[in-house]
Structure formats: C-alpha cells, structure tokens
C-alpha cells in the first residue's frame, strides 16, 4: 500500500479511507486472493503504542488501520492531515457482512464468551437474509490448532475475531499466513453488541462522534480514561 493511502499520527499508521473505498478495496483484493488485515485505532491505542514499541509494530503490520475514534480525526486536522471519515470497527464489520451477503461470500465468527457468537450469528442472519455463516467458535478454546483447522475447514472468506485488543490483533498476525481467508478484522466487543448484550450509544451520539460523552454519562467512573483524549491531542499538537 502506498504512503498516500496512510497518514502517520505519533508514529502510528492511519488509513485514509471511507467506508465505501475501503469496502471496495477489500473485496477487490479478495477477488485477487490477496489477504487483508484490519485493525481499529483510537487515541487510547495510539498513546499506548507510543509507550510500547511492540504494540506500535503490531498496529503498523496491518494492511488497514481504521480511524475508530473522533479524536483521531481531530488529530489529523491538527497536523494538516487527510483523515476525514471515522470508521468504527462494528460499523465496518456490518458493512462487510452486508457486502459478503451480496457477493455470496461466507463469514466466520471467532471469539467472545460461550454462546455470544452463536447469538450474534442468528441476529446477523435476521438482518442479512441469505448470509452464509461458515462457522462460529467462542474465544475460550485453548487449542489454537483446532481453531485454525476449523476456520480453514469451514471455507470462510472473512473472519471476525472478537478477543479484545491487542489479543485479537496478535492472534491474526500470528495465524494469518496459515488461514485460507481473505479478510481478517479484529472487532473487540462487537459480537456482544450485535447479540444485544451491550447497548450502543444512541444514534445522535454516534453520528456526532460523541459516543465517549454517552459512555461518560452512563459510566461516570470512566472519567480518568477520558483524560487520555486531551493528553493525546496536546502530544499531537507538539509533534506536528
């Protein structure tokens, strides 16, 4: 991927894409049997990567680093960059599931607590009639060989891994060459949201990039974590 398609924020790559351009590139690569690894980045993850070279390397190893956080867009603007669209992990997953349904591609859901992936599968099948779910497996399976074998045997084209970050990205990095799939995305708690176990912020908060404010309102004990955003923006300003 050329540098023109990425921007660097505090040493971490961020893809300059929209939902449509990214979806198009991913499925074009899939048609050419090329593999794509997607990781979501937000201010908190970028700050951690600055203190952890191995995490920074892991993030930059991915083919696409989606700007999942309004703070990343603000940071890009501060340094005169080109990141203009926030792409959340769960919304990209839903977009890819819709496209997979249209193209007759199959997906595999790996991760979360026992039963969650199965419930998410049922919800996705309701939302996308005709969707091919090649298989599901919870995140408590300890035998990695079994996981890889099951995914390959399923014939899936896309794998969504919900193991939490950075565990899910580490798993993708360590196993991608052995997996016969084209698109791999780490999706955090998305299965729980799709299954209805976790409630997303209302649409007005999501559309305006204020999910952090909604979380602060419903979980006020998170205020210390929210301080990471101004620290992040100050650091970006100083390093621009």
Automatic annotation (TrEMBL):
The keyword Cell wall biogenesis/degradation applies. Keywords: Cell wall biogenesis/degradation, Glycosyltransferase, Teichoic acid biosynthesis, Transferase. It holds the Pfam family Glyco_tran_WecG. Pathway: Cell wall biogenesis; teichoic acid biosynthesis. The keyword NAD does not apply. It is an enzyme of class 2 (transferase). It comes from the Bacteria. InterPro entries: TagA_TarA, WecG_TagA_CpsF. It catalyses: UDP-N-acetyl-alpha-D-mannosamine + N-acetyl-alpha-D-glucosaminyl-di-trans,octa-cis-undecaprenyl diphosphate = N-acetyl-beta-D-mannosaminyl-(1->4)-N-acetyl-alpha-D-glucosaminyl di-trans,octa-cis-undecaprenyl diphosphate + UDP + H(+). Its EC number is 2.4.1.187. Coiled coil: none annotated. Belongs to the glycosyltransferase 26 family. TagA/TarA subfamily. NCBIfam families: wecG_tagA_cpsF. HAMAP family: TagA_TarA. Catalyzes the conversion of GlcNAc-PP-undecaprenol into ManNAc-GlcNAc-PP-undecaprenol, the first committed lipid intermediate in the de novo synthesis of teichoic acid. This is N-acetylglucosaminyldiphosphoundecaprenol N-acetyl-beta-D-mannosaminyltransferase.
């Amino acid at each position: 991927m050329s540098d023109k398609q990425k921007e660097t924020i505090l040493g971490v790559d961020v893809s300059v894409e929209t939902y449509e351009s990214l979806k198009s590139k991913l499925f074009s690569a899939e048609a050419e049997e090329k593999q794509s690894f997607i990781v979501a980045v937000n201010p908190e993850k970028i700050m951690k990567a600055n203190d952890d070279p191995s995490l920074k390397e892991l993030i930059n190893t991915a083919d696409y680093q989606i700007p999942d956080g309004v703070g990343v867009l603000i940071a890009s603007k501060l340094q005169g960059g080109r990141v203009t669209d926030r792409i959340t992990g769960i919304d990209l997953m839903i977009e890819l599931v819709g496209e997979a349904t249209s193209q007759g591609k199959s997906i595999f859901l790996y991760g979360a607590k026992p039963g969650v992936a199965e419930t998410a599968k049922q919800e996705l099948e309701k939302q996308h009639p005709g969707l091919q779910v090649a298989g599901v497996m919870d995140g408590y399976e300890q035998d990695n060989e079994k996981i890889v074998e099951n995914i390959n045997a399923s014939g899936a084209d896309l794998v969504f891994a919900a193991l939490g970050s950075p565990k899910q990205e580490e798993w993708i990095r360590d196993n991608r060459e052995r997996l016969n799939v084209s698109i791999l995305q780490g999706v955090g708690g998305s299965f729980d949201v799709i299954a209805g176990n976790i409630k997303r912020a209302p649409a007005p908060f999501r559309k305006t990039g204020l999910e952090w404010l909604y979380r602060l309102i419903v979980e006020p004990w998170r205020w210390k974590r929210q301080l990471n955003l101004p620290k992040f923006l100050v650091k970006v300003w100083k390093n621009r």
